[in-house]
User: Fold these one by one.
Assistant:
Number 1:
Amino acid sequence: MGTSTAYHLTHLGWTDVILLEQGQLSCGTTWHAAGLLGQLRATEGGTRLVQYSAELYSRLEQETGLATGFKRCGGVTVARTEDRMVQLRRTAATAEVYDLECELITPARANELYPPLAAEDLVGAIWLPGDGTANPVDVTASLARGARSRGARIFEHTRVIGIEHVHGRVTGVVTEQGPIEAEVVVNCAGQWAKAVGGLAGVNVPLHSAEHFYVVSERIEGVHPDLPILRDPDGYTYFKEEVGGLVIGGFEPRPSRGWPRTDCPIRSSSSSWRRTGTTSPSSWRVRCSASRPSTTPESGSSTTGRRASRPTTSSSWVRRRICGASLWGPASTPWASPRPEERAVPWPSGLWRATPRPTWPLWTSDGSLHSTGTSSGSATGSARSSGCTTRSHGPTASWSRPAPFAAHPSTRSWRRPELCSGPRWAGNGPTSSPRPVRNPASGTRGTSPTGWRGRWTSSVGPAPASPCSTRPRSASS
Amino acid sequence: MPNRSSSVCARPTWTCPWARAVYTGMLNERGGGYEADVTVTRVADDRYLLVTGSASVVRDRAWIERHVREVEHVEVVDVSSSYAVFGLMGPRSRELLERRTRADLSDRAFPFGSSQEIDLGHATVRATRITYVGELGWELYVPCEFAVGVYEALFEAGADLPLTDAGYYAINSLRLDKGYRAFGSDLTPDHNPVEAGLRFTCKLGSDLDFIGRRAVERAAAEGPRRRLVSFLLEDPDPMLWGGELVLRDGAPSGQVTSAAWSGTLGASVGLAYVWRPDRELLTADHLRSGTYEINVGGRLHRAGVGLRAFFDPSNERVRS
C-alpha cells in the first residue's frame, strides 16, 4: 500500500514524497499475501480496481525493470453443493453486469482446466479467464523502484512515533530519527494502521487475524500456468508455486485475532491443527503421481481417485505458514480521510492528489464506520469471522456492500420473543429462503407461504388474512 | 445551513416554514452523486434536525463539517444516542395516536411533511408526518429516557388494534412497494438525482447554489444514461436479494440494487438501474418498449418495469 501510494503520487506529479517503513518493505502483511487477482468483486468499482491492478502489474516490468510475477492464468471456482451452485450462477450473472468474462462449466471441464482437481463429487464450477496472480513482494519492489525513479525517497528502518497536527490539520510526523514536516500524511501502516492513527487521535478500526497457508512439494500436473483454484465450500484456495501448490484457508470460525503486532512472522503447526476446516483431508486436489493424462473424458467421475487425496498426516506439505491478515469491519479496503479530520477540503490521502475519487470506490470510504467502532484484539475473532465468511461464504461477490448491515456491536434492547423467528445470519442464509407455494391455499402468490408460519409465530397472532390492510394492487 | 454561497443540501432548507420536514440530498461536485440522503426539519430559527440512515451518521457529519467554512458558525451535534425513534405506521395510526395525545392530528392541522412537538403519554416528543413504508403515519422522536414508557403506552392504547412490531425486512419490503430509495444501495456517490429519478429533491428552478448543482444541471440537460426503475416479477416464487442481472430483450442491461418479496404485490419487488447496452441516452419510450427479465441464480424471470411505484403511485394512502 505504501509503495503503491508513493508510486501513484509521483505519477500524478507530486515531487516531494517520502515513504517511511519501520522494518523492510513488504515485511508486514504483504510477504504473506497470496497474490491472487480475482477480478469479480461485489461492486463495479472493486472490479475495475482489480482490473487496473492487473493491467499495471503486467506493464510495470517494462517501466521499472523489475518483474512482478504477474500471470493471467485464469481462475476456477468449484461448487460441492447445489446451494453453492446457486451462488456461482449468481456470480456469473454479476460478471455479465460488469461485462466480465465468466463461464459456468461442468466438473469435467473444471478438471480439464485444472488437472490435479478431485472433481468426482463436485456439482459444477465457474471459469474466470481474466483472473491472475502476482508475487506481492516483487510487486512491492517494482513499485518502489518506479516511485524512486520519479523522485520519491524511501526510508526503511524508520519508525513513526508521532504525528504533529495543529487545529486538526496535519503538519508532520515524528520518527525515531527525527521529525519530518508534511502537508499530507497517508496512513498505509496496514496492521499497524490502528496504532499509527492513534498517534493522531484518529480511530482506524482495523485488526489483524491469523491466516494460514501451506506450501506443498512438487505435484504432478501442476505447472506455472495452472489457474487459481477456489473451493469456497472447503474454505480453501490453491495457487501454483515452483511446481507445487500454495494452499490457503479462510476458516468459517477463525481461531483468534493476531495476538501481537510487533511480530510479523510466525509458523506454528499447533495453530494449523486448530483449523479443522482446512485440514488436508478436505482439500479437493490430488497430490500423488497416479493421475492419468488429461483428456476431456478423464475428468468425469471415476472411482478410486479419492485414495490419492492428501491425508491429514500428509508428508508432501513442505512448509506451514501462519501470518497476519488485515481485516476491517466491512472487509473492504479503505482509502479515504477519516471522519475525525476537520481540515478542509481533503486533508489527506490519494484523493487530494486526484483531487477527488475519480472511480466509484465509495464503499472504501472509511468514514462509513463510526468513530466508536473498535476492531481491537478482543473483538477480532468474532469480527473476522464475519469478514472471512463475507469473502468466501455463500454470498460472497454478490452480496451488497456491507457498511449498511446493522452493526453487530450496536445492538439495543430486544424483545426475546422476536428472536425466535427466522434467524438469518448477517450475510444472508446459505440458500435463498425461496417462498414455497402452498398447494392447499390455492391463492397463488398472495404470500410466501413457506415462511408464513414462522413469521406469524414470531411477530404476533396470525391475522385473518396476511394482506388484509394492503389490497393487491394492479401490477405492471 | 444558512450558507448563502454554497449550500450543502440540494434544496433550500432555511426558507422553508418552521416545522416542515424536507427530503433532500447532499451531492458531490464530481457528478452530482449522492453523498447523503436526508430529511431536514427546521426546529427553530437557527436549529435544524437532520435525519439520516443509522449507518451514515458519522459519514454525513464529516461531509457537512468538511464543507462549512469557519466563518459560518455551524455546529453539528450528533444526537442519535439521545433519541429513540418509533415509526407508527398504518391506516389507523392517527386513531391510535389520538388516544394518547391532545394534539390535533387531522390532515388540516398536521399535514403530510410537517413536524410538531406533541405530548404523548408522559413525554413530549417530536412527531413528523412522514413515511418510509407508504402509509399514513408518524415518526416519533422520543428522548431515550422516555422510550420504553412511550412504547408501552402505545401498545396499551392499541391493545384492541392490530398493532405489531415490524422488523427491517418488513420495512424494506414495504418501502420497495413504494419505490422509496435507500442510501447505500439505490443512491450512492456514483448516482445523481437525474439517474435516481429524484430531480424533485433538487431546486434547480431556484437560484440556490448548492454543491453539485452544475453537475446536476449538466445531467438534467443531457438526460440519463442509466435510470433507477421499479420492477415487479411476474412469477411469485423467486426470491431476490439485490445485485441480480437485468436483461432487456435478452441483452444485459442493468442491475438490481434493492429487492424484497412483497406481501402486498405477491411477488418480488425492487429497484434496479437499467441502461442501454450501447450506453446511449435512455428515453422513457425505450424503457417502456422492452421485455425485461431478471437473472435469479441462473434462471430468467419476466419482470414488469416502471418509473412509478407499483403500489399507491398517487400517494393517496400517505395523504389520507
Number 2:
Amino acid sequence: MTVERIKPDDFTKTPAAPAPRPNFGSAMIPKERYTSADYLRLEWERMWTKVWLLGCRLHDIPEPGDYHVTTIGKEEILLVRQKDGGVAGFYNVCLHRGNRIMAGSGHAETFKCQYHFWEYGLNGDFVNIPDLESFPQGAPPCKGLRAVKVDTWNSFVWFSLNPEAEPLRDYLDPMPEHLDPYHFDRMVKVMDVTAEWDCNWKTSVDAFNEAYHVQGIHPELLYFIDDRDVQIDLYGRHNRYLVPFATISERVTETTEIPHLIKHVMKEAGMDPARFDGRVTEVRKALQAFKRANGAAMGLDYSDLNDDQLTDDYHYNIFPNLTLNTHADDLMLFRQRPHPTDPNKMFFDVMMFKLLKDGEEVPPKPRHEQFRHGERSLGLVIDQDAYNLPGVQAGMNSDSFPGLWIGDQELRIRHFHHVLESYVGE
Amino acid sequence: MDLDLRGMKAAVTGGTRGIGRAIAQLLAEEGCDIATFGRAPERVEAARVELSALGVRVHAEPVQGRDGAQVRQWMQASVAALGGMDLVIASLSAGGGTDEEGYWHRNFEIDLMSAVRAVDEALPALRQSRAPSVLVIATMAASETFVAPMAYNAIKASLITWSKQLSQKLAPEGIRVNCLSPGPTMFKGSNWEMIKVARSRIHDKVVRQQPLRRMATAEEIARAAVFLASPAASWCNGSHLLVDGGYSKRVAF
C-alpha cells in the first residue's frame, strides 16, 4: 500500500515536493576512503578545514563568559558567549607553549592557562602574561587567541576553520528553509552523550543515510515505519529522506491489532488506540489530524509544520557530519566526528531534543557523558545501528573487499560521496 | 466421515482473515454458502472472490464490528441473500490490548456483543434449519493465565459462560451451541506474526511453552471448528473444546 503524502497544494513551509534527481551513476565507491590514513589526511586538509561544522547549542552558553569546548580531529575550539551577546570561537591553544586552556563547558571571567597562567579575555585578547618582561621578544605579535569563524543558526553555534569560508547561510542552503519551521530553539536538550565507535566516521554517516537496513537490523520498525516508501531528495551538499512513521512496512501484512510502537506514538499525542476503530494503515493520517486539531490545546505549536511532519521522519544529512531525525515533537541529532589519526575510529555524538509544551517545566540540563561502544545503551534502535559498525569497518579493511556496492535505496550515500569528492578529489 | 454440510448456509463473523477466514474456507469447501464480513473492503472482496470460486453463494460486506446496528443489518441481509441460515460462527475479535479501560469497551463491543447480536438476529432463521448450530470462538487465554491480564482474556471468558448457558436454553429447539478456544495461532497478518517480528522475545517465550514448539495454523483450528459446527457433531452441545496443541498444562477433570 502506498503511503499518502501531502499534496502539492497542501500547506507546507518545509519544501515537500520531490527534488530533481541527478544521475550519480552506479560506480563502486572505493573502500580506501574509509580505511586509508592518507585519505584521512586529505579529508582533513581539503574538507574538514574548509566546511562549516556544528559546535554547540546557543543554550549551552547562554550568558557572557559561558564557554564550550568542541573537538574536531586534532583541533579543539573554544566557543564563548561574548559580553555583547554574540558568540566567538578560538583555537583552544595557549600561545605560550601550546597547552590546552579550557576543557568541557562552564563559565569563566577570563581564560587562564593552567601551566604558566597566561590569561586571555572572553574576546581572546591577552589579559595577562606573567613576567612579560622576561620575554626579550615581547608578547606574541597577535592580539591573543587565534579566532575561527563563528555564526549561529536555528539555536546552534557553528564554526569553520576556513578563514575564507562562505557565509554560514550560503553553506547550509537550502537547509534553513527546510528546518526553520521546526523551531529547534523551542526544544530542550534531554540527552547528550558521545560514544567511541570502532569505525570510520563515514561508516556511521552511511548507516543513517539509507532505510535499506531496516529489514536487516530493525525488525520491530517494520511495524512502525514504511521503509520501502521513502522519498529521497538531494540538494547541493546536503540531502534528506522522508520516512513515513506511524504506519507499517510494505514488507509485512497489516494486523488487526495496532502494533505497540504505533500505539505508543498515539498515546504520546493523547489519542487512545483502544478507541480507534480504523485500520492500522489508517492510523497515520488520523494521528496527523488529531495532532493538528489538538496540538494547540495541549500547548504544542505545530503551525509551521505540514501534516506529514506531524508523524513522519524528515531525515537530513547536513554535510559533512550531521544526521538530523526531525520530528514535530523532538529532534535526534547525531554528529559524527573523525578520529584525529585513525581512520578506523570515530566519535558518535548523540543529542536528543524535546519540544516543550507551553508552561512545561524545563528539565535539568543533561550532563555530557562519553563512553566506549557497548558500555552503555543508546536505546534499542541506535544500539541496533551500532551493532554492525565495527564488523563493517573490519570487513572493509579486508584485502578481499574492493569497495561499496550501492543500490538505489542508498542513493544518499552516493550523493554524499559525490559532495565529498568535490572537496577531497577522487 | 460425512460432515453433512453440503447445501447448508453458514455465517462467519470476521471471516476475511485468520481463523475466521480458514473456517469460511473449509465450510465452503464442504459445500456451504457463506455469509461473512470484515473491516477492510479489499479483504472482503478477496474473500468473496475466493469463496465464490468454490462454487458456493457468498454474501460479504465491509462492516465495523463495534457498530451493533451494522452487525445486525449484516445478519439480516445475509439471511435474505442466502435464503436462510443454518450455522453461525462467531469468530470476530478485536484482539488483545492492555488493561486500560478503552480495551474493555473495545473487546466488549467487538468480541462479545458482535456474537450476541449476530446470534440474536439469526435465531428466527436458525429455527427453520434442519440442523442449526452456533459456534462461539473464545480463547485459551480465558482459562489460562496468559501474557498479561487484559480485557481480551476476560471478555472471551464471558463468551464461554454465555455459550454454555445459551446451549441449555436453545437445545429444546434443536439448536446446538458450542464453544472453541484456540491457543496461540500463526497465520499471515496475524498479531502473532507481528509479535514474532517486532517483539520476538514474547513470541519465543510462548513457543517454548508449546510441547510441539510451534503455534497452531488457522487451518488446524478451523478443522476442529467446522466439525463442532457441523451436523456430524450432533451430540456435542454446550461443549467447550480447547484446541491449543497442549499449551495449557492443567488437567481439566
